[in-house]
Amino acid sequence: MFMGEFLHTIDNKGRLIIPAKFRELLGNTSFVTKGLDNCLFLYPEHEWQSFVEKLQKLPVSQPKAREFVRLFFSGAVEGEFDKQGRILVPANLREYALLDKDVIVVGVMNRIEIWDAAKWKEYSKAAADHYDEAAESLVDLGI
Fold this sequence. Notes:
Blueprint: E1 2-9, E2 15-17, H1 20-26, E3 30-34, E4 40-44, H2 45-56, H3 63-74, E5 77-79, E6 86-88, H4 91-96, E7 102-109, E8 111-116, H5 117-129, H6 131-137
Antiparallel strand pairs: 1-7, 2-6, 3-4, 3-5, 4-8, 7-8
């Protein structure tokens, strides 16, 4: 399971170090794509395949489903680690997530999220203000 928060920098070529404990869980093959809230999602292969299977079941006749699937896959790339444990984040994904230099790598159960550090600080502060409300709403979901 991915968990924790790590500050890293992305270099001018778009290479980002993924924490060693995350690399172990990712294995040799991983996939990075556009996430939600202007972050990127990084999946290990088995989680990627599981999510792809769910997306394949969406009705192509529904515009919102088509829109999501198009955007999700149009930015997706297979990630490979170099000898320094870095992954190359393509320019279009860096632009989408507003990644410049300082980056936060966050473990979120079955995936990793990659955030611009300033955007993460803003997001996490706002989310913390509603943490209790969010927890209460989970009761309706059986948690």
